[in-house]
Amino acid sequence: MKSKYFLRRLLVAIPTFLGITLLAFLVLNMAPGSPLDAMLADPRIAAEELARRRAAMGLDKPVLVQYFNWLGQLLRGNFGFSYSTQRPVTAMILERLPATVALSASALALALIVSIPLGIYAAEHAGSGRDYVSGGISLLMMATPNFFAALILIYLFSIALGLLPSGGMYSSSSVHTLPDLLRHMILPTLVLSFQQIGGLTRHMRSSMLEVMSQDYVRTARAKGLPWRKVIDRHCLRNALTPIVTVVGMSIPSFVGGAVITEQVFGWPGVGTLMVTAINARDYPVIMGVTVFIAVAVLLANLLTDMAYGLIDPRISYQ
Amino acid sequence: MKKRDESYFAVVRQKLFSHKAAVVGMALLILEVILVVILPPLMKLDPITSDYGAVNAVPGGAHLLGTDAIGRDIFARLVFGGRTSLLVGLLSTLISCALGVPLGVAAGYCRGRVETAVMRAADIFMSFPSIVMILVLVSVLGPSVWSVTLVIGVLGWTQFARLIYASVLSVMQEEYIASARAVGTRTLGTILRYVLPNAVAPILIALTLHLAEAILTESSLSFLGLGVQPPQASWGNMLHDAQSLTVLSRRPWIWLPPGIAILATVLSINFLGDGLRDALDPKQM
Known about the structure:
The structure holds 2 protein chains of 2 kinds. Chain A is mainly α. Chain A has a domain of 214 residues: MetI-like (MetI-like fold), CATH 1.10.3720.10. In chain A, 77% of the residues lie in helices and 0% in strands. Chain A contains 12 helices and no strands. In chain A, helix 5 runs antiparallel to helix 6 and helix 9 crosses helix 10. The longest helix of chain A is centred in the C-terminal third of the chain and has 39 residues. The radius of gyration of chain A is 25 Å and the shape is globular. The termini of chain A are close together. The relative contact order of chain A is 0.14. Chain B is mostly helical. Chain B is built from 13 helices and no strands. In chain B, 45% of the residues are buried. Chain B is elongated and about 75 Å long. At the A-B interface, helix 1, helix 6, helix 7, helix 10 and helix 11 of A face helix 4, helix 5, helix 10, helix 12 and helix 13 of B.
C-alpha cells in the first residue's frame, strides 16, 4: 500500500520536472543573442562555416528537438560551459553547493527549533496577551524583507558592536577553521530563518488549536489526565504531522530567500552564482542553476511527501 | 436574495471594524496612498535632480530626510518610491487576479481535462521558487518597472486559481446552481450570477496575500539591481546603495526610511488580510 503511494508521488514529480525544464528552456530561448553571436560579428568567418557550426550545435533543429537534446545532455550530467569563465557549469555549481547546503540546513533547523515551541506556546495561551504578542512578532517577521533584516543585523552586530563579520565565509582566504566559519554563518542563518519562523509559528499554532479541539483530547482530559500530559502525549504528535507538509511547501520560498541572503552577505553559494550569472547574461549558468534548483526542490518535496506518508497512518494515496 | 446579501456584508463589515489591527492596517494604507498621490504636487518634490551643493547631506534644513550620494532628496525619492512600489504591487496583483480567477473558475466549473490541466500547471508553478523564475525572466526581458510588474503578475496566478477553484467546487454542490442550470441559465450567466459572488471571500483574501508578496518581490528585485532602474525611485532600489559598508554604517538616513516603509506597508496589508480572513470566515458566522 505504502510503496504504491510513493511510486505515485514519484510519477507526479516527472511531469513537473519536464514542465519546469521546458519553461526554463523556452524562456532562455527567447533571450536575445546566441552562442554564435561572436562569430556572426566576425567577417573572417564564412557563411558556410557558420551554418556548419549551427548544425554541429543543433541550433538549426526545431525548438522542441533542441530541448530534448539539451535534456539528454543534462541527464548525463552535462550542463554546458559558462560563457564568461569557459568552465563546466556542473563543476561551478558543485563547488558552490556545500556553502548553500550548510547555510540552508542550519537556517531550517533554527526555524524549526524556534517556531514549533513558540507555536505550541501561543496555542496553549490562545486569546491571551502572550498569544497576541507572539502573533504580532510572527507577522512582523513575515513582513520584513530579507535584505532589510540583513542590513539591520549587519549594522547592529558588525558595525555598531563589532561582534560578527559582515559577510563572506572565512576571514582569511588561506586559513579555514570551523569556529571562523561558524562566526560567519550566524548572521546569514538568522536572516534566512526569519521569514520562515513567522510562517511556521502561525501554522504550528493553528495546527495545535485544531488538534486541541478534537474529541480524543476531550476524552483524554475527561478521564482525568493532567493537561500537561494531554498536550505532550496526545496533541503534540498529531499537531506536528501537518507541519511536515508546511515545511515541504515552504521550500521554494526558502530557496528564493537563500538567493537574496547569500547576495547580501557575499556568501559564496549557488545563489550568488545565479545573480552573478544574470548580471553577466551568462545563459548556460543561469539555465544550469535553474534546473539544478528545480531538481533540488522536487526532491525535497518528494522527501516531505514520503515523510508525511510514513508519519500519518491515515494516508493511502488514491 | 438581496436582503441576505446586505446582512452578510453588514456582518462582515462589523467584524472587520472590530478587528483593531485590521483597522489600523487599513487606515495606514489609505493614508499612504493619499500621501504618495498628493505630496509630490503639493510640496513640488523632485526625486531625480541632484543638488550638488548638498551631497550626502544629513536630514534637516532644505532636505527633510537628507540626500544620497549624488545629492538627490531622500524624502522626495521615498514618496516617489512609494508610488512605484504601490503601483507595481497593485498592477501585478490585478494581472494575477485577471489570469487566476478565470482559470480557477474554469477548473472548478468544467472539471475533467480542464481541471487536470489547470491544477497540474498550478502545481508545477508552485513547486518552483518564483523569485528564481522571476530573476530568469527579468534577465531576458531586461529590468524595468513594466517587465517586473508583468512577470510578477503573470507568475502569481496560482494563488488565485487555487483558492477560487476550491471555493467554486464547494459552491457547485449547492442546490441553487443545479436549479439555475435546470431552468436553462447559460454557463456564463450561471458563473457570473451565482458562482462568482459566492467566491468573493477567497478572492479578497488572495488579493491581500498577493499584494504583500508582490511588494516584497519588487523590492527584493530592485535591491538586487534587477528591478526598477535608477534614476526612477523604488523602495527596493533606494536600499541598493546600502550594500556598501560606508553607506550602511555612516548614512543610515539613506536606507532606513525605505526599509521601514516596506515593512510598515507589508505589515499593514497582512493585518488587513488577517482581519478579512476572520471576518469572511463562514464558520464563524
